[in-house]
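Render this sequence as a predicted structure.
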Amino acid sequence: MSSRFLETVHDMVIDLKDKRSRKKLDLFKAFTKVKVDAGEILKMNRDIEDRHRQLMEALGIFTALRVQVVDKTTKATEVKLDVTKSCVEATKATADATKTTVDATKATVDATKTDVETLLTDVDAHAILQLPTVAFVASSVHNPCLQGTREAVLNTIWQWADDDTSGKPIFWLCDIAGSGKSTVAMTARATKHLPPTNSARP
């Protein structure tokens, strides 16, 4: 309903009230005025009903358009949510694939490391086998103890060798380097036929 129509209706109502308030009307004029007033009221009622119908039609169209807009917005939001969900799932799948690739790469690195270590061991073993063989006997560089020297140490070794109940399977010769441990060991072995010596401990 336009504001102009409302103003017109308002003016008509005021005018009708003014006409009724005039008391100096004769009977005939008053009767005629009642007919005129009733006609004007009926016309005003028709105008109001017509404007009300127009308002309701406009309101119906407006409501239908708003419903369409809301429906389109809802559908667009649902599509965006579906796209977002698909993107999240794709990102998750990519992350899983990346993790699998990282795990596979780590396994490959570990396998390569093992292969390199094996290869280095094989190379070292092969290099050792390529070295020239040197015949060396430790006793060949040691002269036996001179007669009458180191007798106390030799007697201790021989007693240990003859004592099967000592419970000590190894006899340790301990002294500083160059003190003659190897010479004593070679002399004790040559004299008593002791088991071979593996090393002398400083």
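Summary. Helices lie at 3-21, 27-130, 151-162, 181-192. Residues 27-130 form the longest helix (104 residues).
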